[in-house]
C-alpha cells in the first residue's frame, strides 16, 4: 500500500498540509503517516534513568497532544478519520528526521506546509527549502493559507531535459486521482516550433496518458519566474510540478531574485517537487 508522509510541528500553519494529505490519501487509497520530529537535550547532571523517565513522559504527553491536534483537523473538515499512523521520531535535525523516516518506510511523497512570501527560505520555510534540495522522496509543498480543493489539473513545467522520465513521474501522481496533465515549456523565439497535434500524440503514447502541451513564449525582458507565474495564472492548475535537476538549486535560481515576492503562485497553489536523485 502506498504511503504518504505528512510532517507537523502542531502549529496552525501545518494544518494545511495535513488537510491536503488526508484528501490525497483518500483519492489514492494510500496510508497516511503523520510525523512529528522532536529533539530532547539530556541535562549534564541527569542520570540515564532519569532522562529515560523524562523522555517517556514527554513522548506520552506529545502523543496525546498530537492525537487531539489531528482530531481537531478532522472535525474542521467534517471528514471521518482514515487509516493513519501517528509517529514521533527523535532527531537532532528535523529535516534529517523526516527524510530518514520517509526513506526507511518507503514513503511515496512527503507533504509539508509552506509559509508565504520572500526568498526561498521565507517562501517555503527553512525546513521545506532543505527538503526540496535534499530529499530523494518527492515533496508536496502546501501553502499554509491553501483552501482545500479537488485536484483536477496538474501543470508540469519542463525545460525539456529528460522530459520523458519526468513525465512518467508526473503521470504516476496524476493517474490515481484522474487529474488532467499539461506539460508547459516556456520557449525562446529561436527554439524549434512544435506541431502541437503531433507533439501531443507523441506525449500521449510515451506517457500512456492524455497530456496537453503548452508553449508560451519566453520574454527576456521578464524573469523566468514571472513567465512561469503568468502562464500559471492563465491556466489555473490545481498543482504545479517542478524538477530540481540543475547543478545549483533550480529553486534558488528561481526564487532568490529580490522581486520574487511579486509573484503569487507559490503562495496559493500546491507545488510538487522532484529532486534529480529521485528515481535514479
From TrEMBL:
Protein name: Universal stress protein
Domain UspA: 2-143
Record PANTHER family: STRESS RESPONSE PROTEIN NHAX, UNIVERSAL STRESS PROTEIN UP12
UniProt similarity note: Belongs to the universal stress protein A family.
Any one Pfam family match given in the protein's UniProt record, by short name: Usp
Amino acid at each position: 500500500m502506498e504511503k504518504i508522509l505528512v510532517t507537523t510541528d502542531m502549529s496552525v500553519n501545518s494544518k494545511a498540509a495535513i488537510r491536503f494529505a488526508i484528501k490525497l490519501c483518500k483519492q489514492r487509497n494510500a496510508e497516511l503517516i503523520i510525523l512529528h520530529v522532536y529533539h530532547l537535550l539530556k541535562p549534564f547532571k541527569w542520570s540515564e534513568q532519569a532522562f529515560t523517565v523524562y523522555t517517556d513522559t514527554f513522548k506520552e504527553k506529545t502523543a496525546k497532544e498530537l492525537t487531539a491536534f489531528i482530531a481537531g483537523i478532522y472535525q474542521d473538515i467534517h471528514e471521518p478519520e482514515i487509516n493513519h499512523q501517528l509517529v514521533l521520531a527523535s532527531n537532532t535535525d528535523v529535516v534529517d528526521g523526516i527524510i530518514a523516516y520517509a526513506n526507511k518506510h518507503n514513503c511515496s511523497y512527503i507533504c509539508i506546509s509552506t509559509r508565504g512570501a520572500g526568498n526561498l527560505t521565507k517562501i517555503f520555510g527553512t525546513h521545506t527549502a532543505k527538503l526540496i534540495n535534499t530529499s530523494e522522496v518527492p515533496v508536496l509543498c502546501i501553502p499554509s493559507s491553501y483552501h482545500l480543493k479537488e485536484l483536477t489539473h496538474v501543470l508540469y513545467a519542463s525545460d525539456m531535459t529528460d522530459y520523458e522520465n519526468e513525465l512518467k513521474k508526473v503521470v504516476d501522481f496524476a493517474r490515481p486521482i484522474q487529474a488532467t496533465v499539461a506539460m508547459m515549456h516556456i520557449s525562446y523565439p529561436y527554439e524549434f516550433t512544435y506541431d502541437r497535434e503531433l507533439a501531443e500524440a507523441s506525449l500521449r503514447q510515451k506517457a500512456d496518458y492524455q497530456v496537453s502541451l503548452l508553449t508560451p513564449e519566453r520574454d527576456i525582458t521578464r524573469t523566468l519566474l514571472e513567465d512561469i507565474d503568468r502562464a500559471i495564472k492563465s491556466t489555473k492548475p490545481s498543482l504545479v510540478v517542478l524538477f530540481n535537476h540543475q547543478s545549483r538549486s533550480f529553486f534558488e535560481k528561481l526564487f532568490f531574485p529580490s522581486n520574487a515576492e511579486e509573484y503569487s503562485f507559490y503562495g496559493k497553489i500546491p507545488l510538487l517537487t522532484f529532486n534529480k536523485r529521485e528515481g535514479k
